[in-house]
Amino acid sequence: MPLNNIFIRLKHKHRNASKAKLIGDFLNQSKTIVDVGTVSGGLANYLSQHNFEITAVDITDKTVYRDITPIVYDGYRLPLENESFDASMLITVLHHCPNPEQVFDEAVRVSKKKIIVLEDVYPSWVMKHLSWSWIL
């Protein structure tokens, strides 16, 4: 495994646990989950280690976890069946989308029960760009 991937995994370990704790109560009674905008795959990996069936989706494959291979899609229409997951997760992804409403609508289409959205709020332009560099 490249040293860069090891660094990313270590850097994100605490962050993934924190995100999972924030959304954990919303995942109750959800077994199958689609992670739209998985990026490194860290949260998907964390949740899959805690007995959730995760399908990762993104517009490119930037995952650093061996067990997470995202479905790469065009950013418009998820290549998934209607109501094929108990829940969809949109975790700190919508602010990166040129058309966040369409991404949200697709998450609704493929979910049976829940849509979980967690977004970043930036107090300044500097913090916004620091957040972007953190996930790259």
TrEMBL record:
Name listed for the protein in its UniProt record: Methyltransferase domain-containing protein
Biological process (GO) annotations?
methylation
Q: What is the superkingdom listed in this entry's lineage? A: Bacteria
GO molecular function terms attached to this record: S-adenosylmethionine-dependent methyltransferase activity
Swiss-Prot/TrEMBL keywords: Methyltransferase, Transferase
The keyword Methyltransferase is annotated on this UniProt entry: yes
Q: Where is the Methyltransferase type domain?
A: 34-113
* Classification via InterPro entries: Methyltransf_11, SAM-dependent_MTases_sf
> Key word Cell inner membrane present in the record?
no
Query: What transmembrane ranges does the database entry give?
Result: none
